[in-house]
Amino acid sequence: GKIKYIDFTSLYPWTSKCCECPVGHPLLILKDFKPLEHCFGFMKCGVLPPNDLFHPVLPVGHSEGLFFPLCRTCVEGEVEACDHSQ
Asked: Which of 11, 29, 60, 76 is spaced 20 to 30 A from 46 at the CA atom?
């Protein structure tokens, strides 16, 4: 098969030039959210993946390296078997 290389880092200057980007001081909205379709800007949020996800995709940085777990708490606590539930 062929190997593909996609450089996402170089997309940053292009999107800054060609796309709308929020400017100014952030407006913190902590409750009474509008539907996401009506929002524009950046969002800081937590993500809870399903327990049966076969290939976790969200990275977690740790002193031992970069991990792709289902549970960040267990990586930080260096727990081998996660007993957390949704």
From this structure: 11
User: DSSP of 36-85, one letter per residue?
Assistant: GGG--S---------TT-SS----EEETTEEE--S-HHHHHTT-SS----
- CA-angle at 6, arms to 65 and 8, nearest 5°: 70
Sequence ranges of the domains in the chain: 1-86
Q: Residue 42's closest CA among 59, 24, 62, 21?
A: 21
* Low pLDDT (below 70) residues in the chain: 8, 85-86
As a whole number of angstroms, the distance between CA 77 and CA 43 comes to 27
Structure confidence at residue 13 (pLDDT): 83
Task: Show the tokens assigned to 9.
Answer: 């880092």
- The overall longest dimension of the chain from CA atoms, in Å, is 50
